[in-house]
Design goal:
Number of strands: 14
Radius of gyration: 21 Å
Shape: globular
Distance between the termini: 31 Å
CATH topology of the largest domain: Rossmann fold
Order of helices and strands: EEEHEHEEEEEHEHEHEHHHHHEHEHH
Number of domains: 2
CATH architecture of the largest domain: 3-Layer(aba) Sandwich
Structural class: alpha/beta
Largest sheet: 8 strands, mixed
Strand content: 15-25%
CATH class of the largest domain: Alpha Beta
Amino acid sequence: MTTTPPERIVADGVGRLPVFSHASIAGELIFVSGTLGTLPGSFDLAPGGTGPETTQTLRNIETILAEAGADLSDVVKASVYLADMTTFRHMNEAWSGFFAEAPPARITVGGAVLALGAAVEIECVAQRPHRPPAKAEGEPLPRSTGFAERDGERIYWESVGEGEPLVLCHGAGGNHAVWYQQVPVFGRHRRVITWDHRGFGRSTDRAAESGPAAAVGDLEALLCALGVEACDLVGQSMGGWTALSYALRHPERVRSLTLADTPGGISSPELASLVESLRSGAAPLAPPDRLGLHPALHASFAGRDPAGAYLYQMLGGFGEPDLARIAPRLLGTTVSEEELAGLRCPVLFLVGEHDALFPPALIRAAGSQVKGARVVELPGAGHSPYFETPDAWNRALAGFLGVGL
């Protein structure tokens, strides 16, 4: 009798010795190896001791589980090893940022001597989630397009695939078409809805009202037109203001919220400093007059993928958005602590390692104000990881949504 050997999982960006895999899958269970809080692509531990190392360790486990088509919600048992049991409180505080409600079973062992002089190491067992069958590779996906009418404006939308709706809100550097590396991927599992904010792409802005306030109403109008009762909502940069404001105004319609390279209006000293830099002209805004260069892309991207960088520039030129009017409206739209306290859906923050517009520190400051929110930093990317490193971005979102890519 022959048996199927266990599947071995190795995740990009998480350091490991070649003598073990990051995880193994046997039957319905995923066994994640002991994982340390090493920074992406290195064996350097996250600085700051037990708390920061625990946070980074759990981020690494998120990456590993995503590679296996699972996420932290699928973890059933975890073992935590601490070098110093007196730091138990710091580990628990970081742990709560990932498992605020219904945490998995766990054991904590103190006095452990760990590799690399680490303060913490975590291993876990997760159940292999049962996902709805995906459309076969190469099978044509259903697609429809149209306009939602609101207040004399026409808001363009596209819908691809079938199933639970996933709605993507673009940033100021693009339109519905910038999601071309996400729509075919998630469209095999979900109904993916993309759309153009006012003045972008094919949407009108006759009243010159483009901004967060108008966008929330526009999004509600198009979801009603499409018969969407609830969705998973994603907002990139400018679209983060739309997505967060919509989730707060229509909580019954949002199952989960992903804020990608955006604070979405969540105030912090880091954001205040950025606003001051923009006012003084110290922060980049306008695209440089060089082919393929753009403040929303890491400087190295044009060299690595000149055609992709040029495409990004071209996509940003479609439509007639009044960015000089939109930017102050964005930065002038803030969310209070009381409003954030009312946010009940799971929240994921994604940010590029080299984001120069909304740096990781700013995004972490925003994420720290949302109870139970996860923050995932994507290595090697600037302000647009969904465009620059789409595979890593897609895996991170898929893990959060429970989609097995």
